[in-house]
TrEMBL record:
<comment type="function">
    <text>Catalyzes the phosphorylation of riboflavin to FMN followed by the adenylation of FMN to FAD.</text>
</comment>
<dbReference type="InterPro" id="IPR023468">
    <property type="entry name" value="Riboflavin_kinase"/>
</dbReference>
<dbReference type="InterPro" id="IPR015865">
    <property type="entry name" value="Riboflavin_kinase_bac/euk"/>
</dbReference>
<keyword id="KW-0288">FMN</keyword>
<keyword id="KW-0548">Nucleotidyltransferase</keyword>
<dbReference type="GO" id="GO:0009398">
    <property type="term" value="P:FMN biosynthetic process"/>
</dbReference>
<dbReference type="GO" id="GO:0005524">
    <property type="term" value="F:ATP binding"/>
</dbReference>
<dbReference type="GO" id="GO:0008531">
    <property type="term" value="F:riboflavin kinase activity"/>
</dbReference>
<keyword id="KW-0547">Nucleotide-binding</keyword>
<keyword id="KW-0285">Flavoprotein</keyword>
<keyword id="KW-0067">ATP-binding</keyword>
<keyword id="KW-0808">Transferase</keyword>
<dbReference type="GO" id="GO:0003919">
    <property type="term" value="F:FMN adenylyltransferase activity"/>
</dbReference>
<comment type="pathway">
    <text>Cofactor biosynthesis; FMN biosynthesis; FMN from riboflavin (ATP route): step 1/1.</text>
</comment>
<dbReference type="InterPro" id="IPR015864">
    <property type="entry name" value="FAD_synthase"/>
</dbReference>
<dbReference type="Pfam" id="PF01687">
    <property type="entry name" value="Flavokinase"/>
</dbReference>
<comment type="pathway">
    <text>Cofactor biosynthesis; FAD biosynthesis; FAD from FMN: step 1/1.</text>
</comment>
Length: 329
């Protein structure tokens, strides 16, 4: 899959079939849309393309409001990292992703100009598949009707994608964020079509966990605010040559108020009964159960005792799973 990072891109030599969206989580609704687009593209003999944005428009407008001194509350949350979003799109058969910077220029782009200059001329879209609730352009003035009308004038065929529902409820990124906030991982997995997980490369940390007797894998989350926070039972993939082999663990995901003051988000995973050099590895951390919220501690000894209790509870989780299944999921 080719990734193009300017909007409009330079030197495109082939028209495309296109869909547009943020695709946070790439849930079952997103997957149905992208699969339909890919089928459309194959039938028309065109590459399947996705236009998406980084940062998320909600994050851009939130930061802008704060710069202007408005009290807008906490930063919007993300379900997936950029890496996971792009990997999911690639797995669905997308040929190219236009990863556009969402900035002042894009935010102020008049809706009709966006269709004519960006979609028709810049991206050379000849076929667009999109949800009927799609809005675009400055102040979200463009809607599906405008896209279809202006697109027709520009030689673009615009088709609607029906919504995807679960038990009569429309699947959405907002519902998945709610499920993750409640640590309802089965509900999130039902809407995502897969267990909830975050991928990243293991980086060096301060080795505080090692000093406390609980060494950790460290994964940065530099993409905004994650959709969940706290201490979790997890399992980690990517530590062996077998991609299906999971290593059980317990993870802290947050800003580490007990030891840090900068507020940077970090996912730290202590692996149970595993040792080795994992630095630089690309791993996937799957979340199974929430144990507790993140807490401050008066000293490192208190933190160490709490981690030991978290490890004990994680082991109990996996023992219960083994007793009921005969194996770890």
């Amino acid at each position: 899959m080719k990734i193009l990072r300017s909007l409009p891109p330079a030197h495109l030599d082939q028209p495309c079939a296109l869909t547009i969206g943020n695709f946070d989580g790439v849930h079952l609704g997103h997957q149905a849309l992208v699969r339909t687009l890919v089928a459309d593209a194959r039938e028309a003999g065109l590459p399947a393309a996705v236009l998406t944005f980084e940062p998320h428009p909600r994050e851009y407008f939130h930061a802008l409001a704060r710069q202007r001194g408005r009290d807008v509350g906490p930063e919007p949350v993300r379900i997936s990292t950029l890496r996971d979003r792009l990997e999911m799109l690639a797995s669905l058969g997308v040929d190219r992703v236009h990863l556009a910077p969402f900035d002042q220029r894009v935010a102020q782009w008049p809706a009709e100009d966006f269709v004519r200059n960006c979609l028709a001329q810049g991206l050379q879209a000849r076929h667009i598949r999109i949800g009927t609730d799609f809005c675009f352009g400055a102040q979200r003035q463009g809607d599906f009707g405008m896209l279809k009308s202006v697109g027709q004038q520009c030689g673009i065929r615009v088709l609607a994608m029906p919504t995807v529902e679960d038990a009569g409820v429309r699947i959405s990124s907002s519902l998945i964020r709610e499920a993750l906030l409640q640590a309802d991982f089965p509900w999130a997995a039902q809407m995502l079509g897969r267990p909830y997980a975050i991928s990243g490369r293991v980086s060096h940390g301060r080795r505080l966990g090692t000093r406390l007797g609980f060494p950790t894998l460290n994964l940065r989350f530099p993409w905004g605010r994650p959709a969940l926070q706290g201490i979790f039972v997890v399992q980690v993939y990517g530590l062996s040559d077998d991609p299906a082999q999971a290593v059980p663990g317990v993870a802290s995901f947050g800003t580490r108020p007990a030891v840090e003051a900068d507020g940077a988000w970090l996912l730290e995973v202590h692996l149970l009964d595993w040792s080795g050099d994992a630095y630089g590895r690309l791993v996937r951390v799957e979340f199974l159960e929430k144990l507790r919220d993140e807490l401050p501690f008066p000293d490192l000894d208190s933190l160490g005792r709490q981690i030991a209790d978290d490890v004990r509870k994680a082991r109990a989780h996996f023992q219960k799973t083994t007793d009921s299944d005969g194996q770890i999921d």
